[in-house]
Amino acid sequence: FVYGLLLTEKHVRLYQFDRAGAVFSGRVPIHNEATTFVKLILALSTVDEVQLGFNDRIRWKNNDLYCIMDGVGTYKICNVKPFHRRTIRGRGTTCWVVEDPDEQGSRLLLKFAWRTLDRVPEWEFLEEIQRKCGRIPGVSELRGRGEIERISDLRNGAPLLTPTNKTINDRQYYYVFQPFYGRTLEKAPNTLILLEAFRDIIAAQWELARLDIVHRDISTQNMLLNERPDAQVGERGVLIDFDMAKRVIRDKSGAETDFRTGTRVFQSIKVLMGYGTHDYLDDLESSFYGITWIACTSDR
């Protein structure tokens, strides 16, 4: 979260922006309530990073950046600039590449994100895959996970309501560790490597469909090249990010279509129109739009 002040010549108002939106105080007359105004300035001048909304798990030590997870371990960060979604309200996904302390020379992807409480955590799908299949080539593996805090914990008792008294979904902050596979398909060095990786991702979707799991957020950002030296045929491309995934019960309603779920430019026509339920054919159509996007925008 982050705090901000809206200041005029007569009044001040305090805002808190977080992944659920914004909450703000009433107008405070700065001349009649000068003490309150000074308290606000002092509070926002604190050197306590946690109170200001920073993630204090990311810390500098000498010239290196580390992620210090209480009760989990300390991980050296390889990329100073993380991947993150440039939005205020929503999942706020942030991804760091860290050294794997258990395997020298190997790297992990550490992902932080905020999920709504009514969504099934992505690790449940990955754990189900590992439990039933051991693993599916072309689907990201899970190396660790945990939950941290909720937005309701940061609101200090303020209700999660809109000005019209509509309930705002609470969100859970969590992290997952996965192998670091490599770059997105857009960065493929040549056409053959691109098509081999894309083929393996499509094969992985078929295996997910057999488990009645739909991804629902297939895009160019979620289809990766597997650049690890031990990558075999079937795992040259990897599908990641199961935040939006759902189970589909055959012969029943399944996952309703919702154009707000996923990346709009890659959504199927059926999802955009709001027809029926989201199934594996919609994931397949999104994959087609993804590879078409790469073919039309690549300079290689």
Automatic annotation (TrEMBL):
Q: Which domain of life is it from?
A: Eukaryota
Signal peptide (residue range): none
InterPro entries registered for this protein in UniProt:
Kinase-like_dom_sf, Pkinase_fungal, Prot_kinase_dom, Tyr_kinase_AS
Example GO molecular function: ATP binding
The record's SUPFAM superfamilies line, in alphabetical order, gives: Protein kinase-like (PK-like)
The record ties this protein, via Gene3D superfamilies, to: Transferase(Phosphotransferase) domain 1
- The membrane-spanning stretches of this chain are none
**Record domain Protein kinase: where:** 83-300
* The protein's name in its UniProt record: Protein kinase domain-containing protein
Per the UniProt entry, what species is this protein from, by scientific name? Gloeophyllum trabeum (strain ATCC 11539 / FP-39264 / Madison 617)
